[in-house]
Amino acid sequence: MRIATWNVNSIRSRIDRVADWLERSDVDAVALQETKCRDDQFPEDRFAALGYEVTHQGFSQWNGVAIVSRVGLVDVEVGFPGQPGYGDPIVDEARAIGATCGDVRLWSLYVPNGREVGHEHYAYKLDWLERLRQAASGWLAADPHAQVALTGDWNIAPQDEDVWDMAAFDGHTHVSEAEREVFRAVIDSGFSDVVRPFTPGPGVYTYWDYQRLRFAKREGMRIDFVLASQPLAARVTDAMIDRQERKGKGPSDHAPVIVTVS
DNA sequence: ATGGTCGGTGGCCGA
Length: 262
Prior knowledge:
Elements: E1 2-7, H1 11-25, E2 29-33, H2 44-48, E3 53-57, E4 65-69, E5 74-78, E6 96-101, E7 104-110, H3 120-142, E8 148-153, H4 177-188, E9 191-193, E10 224-229, H5 230-233, E11 236-241, E12 257-261
Parallel strand pairs: 1-2, 7-8
Antiparallel strand pairs: 1-12, 2-4, 3-4, 5-6, 6-7, 8-10, 9-10, 11-12
Helix pairs in contact: 3-4
The chain binds one DNA strand of 15 nucleotides through loops.
């Protein structure tokens, strides 16, 4: 079984590329982020034509998460228990959706960006991650054999080598100690990054800003992760970051991350 | 050269 995660930066503008990629990638279940559409705008028929079921949560042009699967898609959970909202008034955001695909409990997560250290959105990001950690920790406590994959755009570069130049990020989000601390706390709750062992750095990234020729200059960030519960991690036989998908006409600014599970 | 690009939108905001 092959599972993947991909921040597509608008599913409507990317659908042709995503469909082409699905056809040749032999991926069974994909978590998508930043679909940037409402449920009724999601191009479900394009996935159905390729033999994939879809579940999606999207309210507007912001955020939006989906799971696409050809190995079953059951027990859909929109949002995780305790997931915070944002804004004034506080409203729910489409940033998390879970489903069981095959025997894997797959989560598509779009962690809040944070905007600036000290910003209201930054506090929201930290709270969101801590709440996620609490929920995920609870799932493992309830079932030590749970096959859980927390996948998505985490908007955190956990190590210095996960950005091309730490000096460029001095004082910015994604690299702050508070963000790294809560990311480590998720790991310490019983998950592991199952991609890194197969894609060692430095200089290995999943995201490259559209601006300033970042991709051509190999100046990226590693912010998209597949964190697997230990029982699932033990089954992982391969992983890759499909950076080919960052090339060509009309790419997302993120590459898909693919994991092979025995 | 202190910007540079995308996406969705609607006459900017978010990334």
